[in-house]
């Protein structure tokens, strides 16, 4: 039975698989019975596979669409929360202004008709104190109640200084919940005073005793009602930038009382503060000095009265100054860092040439608290815990505002820490796969590109702060140490060949030269950090060559090489030519024979290869290490030839040995000396001594023991 194919068959298959009564086992059993053979089953399997892939793609599209909608919704919620926060501030300010106007009208009416004012006050408060003595007793009673309650709170005596006007307004038990997961955190007791809110945690083993948790000034506190969502109900949120806390009251009545008393206390605090500033801003008559019979004191008194008159000129009743702390809070909440710093600059410019009076000091204290909050937010923006994406330019906004706040040193430190974490993360994310040289290319590209971008951004951000450049140089050196650690771990610790190590070091040097574009030369730093590993690699490879040479010497038969084919002979000629041996043809014979020993030829190729790779790694600190390694390698071969020449009795072999010795002294050693001088830039006396000596080692002619 042929199974249906095409789009119609696919739709029927989809409906069949999506049906509620679908049973996989029965479906497979029925399909096996109805199929005509293996081909039908294969076709059906392909259709199911295609349907599965189509379903997977549809799921991916739906997930991506939902994810985008979720991100957009979260962004809209964030905007809405910010707007609601601003609206709450605006409503609170409008309510305070209306009540202030009403209070001012009542005060004016009381001045016009004192009897009416007395009757209104008596009707409004039947318990109004009848004398100043009773008022003092009431104030003293409220302060005594506050002192008694605070004695039960551990750790708040030093944090809550006593002041004549401070008293307790409201207090009660609350339960704190986590703002993200809505899980119960702890039980607390809140003390609302006329200027601040104290939160204390309940001590489990002591009834009626508490431990200090936090203290929030009412000036920077916002109260938000949380809508009931069973079982989460009777909750309200306190916003203290940059944090927020959620508390649950015992019932709806207590929650309502908390919301009302918090708003009322905040409003009274704002009104009293405004009245105090207005009173202090009014000009005060100068005290009448006592009469003096000294006629010379008149000029001194005039000079002393002038600055006192100037001190009273500072006008802090301007609307933008009165609203400055709240405007700073809004800017910080909306992450408008530039606007906040602009307001601070405007205030500093206004107060720049004004005398420092007591109202100015109090205003400065409030503003300094906002400056600390703004600085903390900017510091958090530059912390490595934040996202490191976006490159160095992503930090420019926070860095520039910190510099404007006079925090250049802190901005420099945080910027460099942020970039160090970014570079380290980028290096860690590199996948170690494939050849070592490929990984080193990626490592150098990532590191030196990041270093170059950081340097350019540093020049842009700190152009006028020359004192920060030394910090950047120190940071660059420490970053280079981190790079060299990753480099050495992959190149030298893994025991790569000397040729691979030389290529990797060459790549690192070439990338390091890119920093010269910005006037930064760290070549000497990378040399100093790599010198130990390169010395170890040279000595290790030198030991390998010496061991291989000794092994070949032990099996030396002093016979000519027979390469068997012209191709092999041509290849050897090319290898010798690449090693710098141009007269190799004079050592070749007929029929693919070479009039040299296999040991000498192998030694020549290995020594020249070692020299070429070592010169790629060369810098002045490695001069003596390279020179001593070459001398040791050459001594092994020359000593063996010298010993064989003394011990050999066969005249033909002795002549062959002399021919090999002549090749070493007259061809190989001059080539080594010339190539070393070309690579280093100066001749080596030790190599000259080896070449000029008829024998490298004077040995007793009667001795038959090798000195190797």
Automatic annotation (TrEMBL):
Q: Name one GO cellular component term.
A: growth cone
- Primary subcellular site in the record, as a coarse category: other
Q: Which GO terms describe its biological process?
A: exocytosis; protein transport
Which regions are flagged for Acidic residues bias? Answer: 296-312
Pfam families this protein is in? Exo84_C, PH_EXO84, VPS51_Exo84_N
Q: Where in the cell is it found?
A: Cell projection, Growth cone; Cytoplasm, Perinuclear region
- Give the PH domain ranges: 167-267
Q: Which residues fall in a compositionally biased region of kind Basic and acidic residues? A: 269-281
Q: Which InterPro entries match?
A: Cullin_repeat-like_dom_sf, Exo84, Exo84_C, Exo84_C_1, Exo84_C_2, PH-like_dom_sf, PH_domain
Residues that span the membrane, as ranges: none
Q: Which UniProt keywords apply?
A: Cell projection, Cytoplasm, Exocytosis, Protein transport, Transport
RNA-binding among keywords? no
* Keyword Chaperone attributed: no
Region annotation Disordered: residue ranges? Answer: 269-312
The entry's family comment says: Belongs to the EXO84 family.
Q: What's this chain's function?
A: Component of the exocyst complex involved in the docking of exocytic vesicles with fusion sites on the plasma membrane.
Q: What is this protein called?
A: Exocyst complex component 8
The root-end lineage is: Eukaryota, Metazoa, Chordata, Craniata, Vertebrata
